[in-house]
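Subject: Sanity check before I submit

Could someone independently write out the structure tokens for this chain? I want to compare against mine line by line before I put it in a report. The sequence has 228 residues.
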Amino acid sequence: MASKRTPKLDFSQVQDKLQRQFSNLDPKDPSLWPILPKILLCLVIAAAVVGIGWYMWLQDAEDQLQAEQARELTLRDDYTKKLTKAISLEQLKKQREQVQQYVTQLEKQLPSKAEMSALLSDINQAGLGRSLQFETFRPGQVVLKDYYAELPITVRVTGKYPDMGAFAADIANLSRIVTLNNLAINPVSKDGSGVLAMDAIAKTFRYLDQDEIAEQKKAADAARKKKR
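---
Independent answer below. Compare away.
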């Protein structure tokens, strides 16, 4: 009985068929292409889509990485600052106590409302003690600030220049805070007597009492409501 022969595969014919499938392709209508070019085109498109998607995903991941790296630097700086504060906490507490003590000392230099008349008398006596003549000594309107009240006093004294300098020094050495502002010294006459006139605004300060503090707070709250 004769055996069946297996047909031989002709590679040249296969190659020729494949080449014919890729020849005369119409780029405007891929639907008319043979099956193999269609498959290759689909593979190229799929690879391009995957490549673009992969690139976009990597780009988004890189943006997130950069954002996290910037956040890490910010957190490190914040941690360093907090660590420095924590290390120097005791020193900061001591400095705070020193500042509070200093503020308390300054507050003690501010008279109360009841002590203002005595302070005005001290200013007047300081001038008289230096042989100066008061031509004007006129307290003005009290100006209320956030934590204190300011009292301007219009002053005009006449006398010798050294006495005026000594008067200014006495004012500076008072136990309460008094400042001399807008100083102007001019000769009283041209007769060569050496008598001068000093015009100034003396300002003294006092702390607010509880009623004034409450009034200031009420006014501040009303101002905030108006802004809203």
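---
OP: Matches mine. For the report I'm noting this point. The CA atoms of residues 71 and 127 lie 66 Å apart.
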